[in-house]
Specification:
Helices cover 34% and strands 23% of the residues. The chain has 3 helices and 6 strands. The protein is globular.
Length: 88
């Protein structure tokens, strides 16, 4: 499988371009490619990701099924906490 890493993929683009980029990422992921998305846009991450992890202070959290997370959970992860949730 191919791996794509995208950093702030929709930063600074208009709404139509952002929608196109998000759909392109979803298309890549559905065709045997892994896509690592680095973003500060939590709404976007919740829309396009299925697995979520946080890198904070040089430490990578466990990965989580994004459907099991709330915005509060993400805040805890960003603060360096571990969550007591089932991993994907």
């Amino acid at each position: 499988p191919r791996v794509f890493v995208v950093n702030q993929p929709t930063w600074g683009v208009d709404a139509a371009a952002a929608a196109f980029i998000r759909q392109s990422i979803l298309n890549l992921a559905s065709h045997d490619s892994a896509v690592v998305v680095i973003s500060q846009d939590l709404d976007e991450l919740f829309e396009i990701c299925d697995t979520f992890a946080v890198l904070t202070n040089g430490r990578l959290s466990k990965s989580y099924d994004i459907r099991s997370l709330s915005s509060e959970d993400v805040g805890l992860l960003m603060g360096g906490s571990d969550l007591d949730l089932k991993n994907p």
